[in-house]
Amino acid sequence: MPPARLADTAIHPGALERAQAELAALQPLFQLTGAVHAAAWCRRDGSVALVREDVGRHNALDKLIGALATRGCGFDDGFVLMTSRASYEIVQKAATVGIAAIAALSAPTGMAVRLAEAAGVTLVGFARGHRHSVYTHPQRIH
């Protein structure tokens, strides 16, 4: 996948922490079952604008992208927060629509890291509290 023309979305590390804190309260299915993933669209400041849940992490992201597109929202002024690991499919879907940054609560796969690097996507893993690991394009996190 060639590098996409992605926005230079600047994300303060505190925004990652804020998004995580807000997301927990916005997951009603997870609160009921403890067994679903969420994909959240977060503004640059970390406030959560929209959340979609599903048993499958890929489905949760598909639902989120569809909801954002239906509402006419752009994909260039924020980031995605996933409650799962970051697989190459997550990166591929995000890059395809122009999402410049993905944060995941768990680890990225090696293939996800390689694809994110090639596609120009900032990939953050192990986003937990005030700690996180930036795997690709760290210039967006400052």
TrEMBL record:
This is Formate dehydrogenase family accessory protein FdhD. Coiled coil: none annotated. GO terms for molecular function: sulfurtransferase activity. Keywords: Cytoplasm, Molybdenum cofactor biosynthesis. The keyword Electron transport does not apply. InterPro entries: Cytidine_deaminase-like, FdhD. It comes from the Bacteria. It comes from Thauera phenylacetica B4P. GO terms for biological process: Mo-molybdopterin cofactor biosynthetic process.
